[in-house]
Design goal:
Blueprint: H1 6-36, H2 46-56, H3 65-84, H4 89-106, H5 113-123, H6 128-148
Helix pairs in contact: 1-2, 2-5, 2-6, 3-4, 3-5, 3-6, 4-5
């Protein structure tokens, strides 16, 4: 018989949390899509990655409310700036992500999916709806993590 790997033993120990927390992420995203509508999901695509961090790594720094909301605000600001600056498209995209990274680390609100927010804003039309969509989604996910923090486990 082969000795148990750490992956197998970890799965055996946390399998219920894997299922519950994955279903919680699906439920929250389902509600967000219902509220916001399918047409806004390209702008909110980074929220899928945020849900992974919130529900699979809830104890991580990146899952903290300050980082989730602050990171997405940095991404929104960066994407908004480069959406309106007339540069070659590929340069706009690259610089928006670079500025988002700079702002997140300088302001100590690192949240990796927010770099995707910056890119999504450059790619899509900048509207009030886009900003509200991202921020509302970030707040909803942050509040879920906050209220469930004693029940959620780090799965990675």
């Amino acid at each position: 018989m082969e000795p148990e790997t750490s992956l197998t033993s970890k799965f055996k120990k946390l399998w219920k949390y894997y299922i519950i927390q994955s279903l919680l992420a699906a439920t929250v995203l389902f509600i967000i899509v219902l509220i916001l509508g399918e047409d806004k999901m390209v702008v909110a695509s980074a929220i899928g990655a945020t849900s992974f961090i919130v529900f699979a790594m809830p104890k991580s720094v990146s899952a903290q409310t300050r980082h989730v909301i602050g990171g997405h605000l940095a991404g929104l600001a960066s994407g908004g700036i480069f959406y309106f600056i007339q540069l070659p498209y590929s340069l706009e995209c690259a610089l928006a992500v670079a500025l988002a990274i700079f702002l997140m680390v300088a302001l100590d609100v690192e949240h990796p999916p927010a770099a995707g927010t910056a890119l999504a804003v450059v790619i899509n039309e900048v509207t009030l709806d886009a900003f509200v969509t991202i921020l509302l989604s970030a707040v909803i996910l942050s509040q879920c993590r906050y209220y469930l923090r004693h029940r959620l486990r780090d799965l990675v």
